[in-house]
What we know:
Blueprint: E1 11-14, E2 17-20, H1 22-36, H2 41-48, H3 64-72, H4 88-97, H5 107-117, E3 118-120, E4 128-131, E5 137-140, H6 153-169, H7 185-195, H8 202-219, H9 222-236, H10 244-251, E6 252-257, E7 263-267, E8 272-274
Parallel strand pairs: 3-6
Antiparallel strand pairs: 1-2, 4-5, 6-7, 7-8
Helix pairs in contact: 1-4, 5-10, 7-8
Amino acid sequence: MASNRKLPFGYEIRMGQVCVQEQEAKIVRAIFKAYAEGASYRQLTDWLNTQPISYHETDKPWNKNMIARILSCSVYAGGQDYPSLITEEEQMRAFTAKPTMGKTEVDGHLDKALRALARCDVCGDRLEYRQNYAGWARWICPSCGMLSPQISMESVKKDVRSILEYIFIHADSVQPPQCLHYQATQQEDAFIRMINTAGFDEVTAKEMVMDIIAGRFEALGSEDYETERIRNILTSLESTSKTGASLLEQISTAVLIHPNGSISLKLRNKQIIERSQVS
């Protein structure tokens, strides 16, 4: 099995060459066939967790994110030095069957959520959306005067859906911002140096340990909690096609609109995901 999934599931390296891993390849073929015939992510997950083949070396249970990665991987029909596991026709049937975000979304609900969450990337204040019958559409900040270029509600919805779909498939991309993590390297290094010194003061050592523990406890703030909460929400979803507005409200605090018209999503763990990251 490919270590840490550096290769797509179904392949392995032998004698320096990418080769088919036959046990995994059978799973890949079964996933594409079942999905093209109408099986849901949940049904596939339940079935895969009865099989002896795991996605990771750690025997972590199968989940819909793993299945989504397999179904969205373009190399299984051959190409980029990968031997084919399925035909182009089989791949196309699965790609065609893949749920498309927004088809069952009630657009009015998403419009309302976007108006409530739209924020100015310059000053952070709430934006107003204005349009006219001639097709003019802009996002305006009453506080700082930021005026976006031509960018319609439909365009913003499309970008937000792309971000939501990306993190739905790549739930592990949800991470607390690095700058918010506990940083006490110097304190810990000082403790290690002290205990490696002959005749160190045990009372002082215990005090340092308590300080380090207290620092780590304080560092486990809302960002870590929200990160896990968001991941759990994403993992529990069958798809995003019916939950766009609800998912947006559950996991984000702002849809940031930049002066150049680009879109970012600010998650509740304070992580910002740019639309350009998910292209």
